[in-house]
């Protein structure tokens, strides 16, 4: 009886978050008993966990809760209270933040290896961010938070960064992504990898709401290869067809404005000639992908082998480019001199 009057009965239990850095907070009861009929206020993005003698009794979501035996079925059962027993009770109360935790950083301190069908085994360094939230407060408290009075977001980030990075390497391998995928499809690849990492976070009651790759570092020679592929995509047949359609629209527009369609035929023919030559050059590059490498080898002392027919054909094409104004006289003469020296 003396202990009962000595301790102040708790009538209001709530957590007013003063910092976004706190993830779990134990209500400071100071050995006080909770009054029967006390008010428990749980705000949005919070959950309250009641412990009786170290055992999880009840978990409350957002709202105002009146603490009575009929509203606390698990705790009432643990206490062996009979219906209508209105004495104060003792319990530990932990509040858990369930809001989304943003901008956690991750990165690969050591390179990971990706098997690429074109480039072979490629070293990759990747960096990014991830968001998570506590989806199951009961499981999170039991499997991770424990009995700490305060758990900060920084502590969670430090621990799970060590989990996310190796899982990223495993998930990347399972996804079958190539070096080009990593280099060009950040968002899509992040969404592919996220559920693979989520499988390990389920055991802790955590949800990985977003996993994002923000930068990728590849060896210089692989990066240059990716740039060449991008250039090749820009000269694809689809884009050339679009270019031809736009050029045709320009010719028709000029003809309508000038009222003289016949005089515009020459312009249309010139445009068609340019497009045909671009298509021919693209086809040559596809049939001979090592042409640029051969040119570099020539600079190092290796002579490119060209037949007389190929040289004369190239001279004719260069002459047409000069007539169309694409090549200057100086550029044409330099290339002509170079080709004639090979005869």
Describe this structure in words.
By secondary structure, this protein is an alpha+beta fold. The protein has three domains: 2-97; 101-222, Band 7 domain (Tetrahydropterin Synthase, Chain A), CATH 3.30.479; 306-343. Helices cover 48% and strands 24% of the residues. The protein is built from twelve helices and twelve strands. The strands form three sheets. Strands 5-4-7-2-11 form a five-stranded antiparallel beta sheet. Strands 8, 9, 10 and 12 form a four-stranded antiparallel beta sheet that branches. Strand 9 and strand 10 form a beta hairpin. Helix 8 (237-258) packs antiparallel against helix 9 and helix 11 packs antiparallel against helix 12. The protein is rod-shaped and about 110 Å long. The model is unreliable at 1-6, 261-265 and 289-302 (pLDDT under 50).
Mean pLDDT: 75
Shape: rod-shaped
Cα distance spanning the termini: 116 Å
Count of helix runs: 12
- Secondary-structure element string: HEEEEEEHEEEEHEHHHEHHHHHH
CATH class of the largest domain: Alpha Beta
Q: In angstroms, what is the radius of gyration? A: 36 Å
Question: Looking across the biggest beta sheet, what order are the strands in?
Answer: 5-4-7-2-11
Number of domains: 3
Name given to the CATH architecture of the largest domain:
2-Layer Sandwich
The CATH topology annotation of the largest domain reads as Tetrahydropterin Synthase, Chain A
Number of separate strands: 12
- Looking at CATH, the homologous superfamily of the largest domain is Band 7 domain
Assembly type: single chain
Please bin the fraction of helical residues: 40-55%
Structural class: alpha+beta
Unreliable spans are 1-6, 261-265, 289-302
**What's the main sheet like?**
5 strands, antiparallel
| Beta strand % | 15-25%
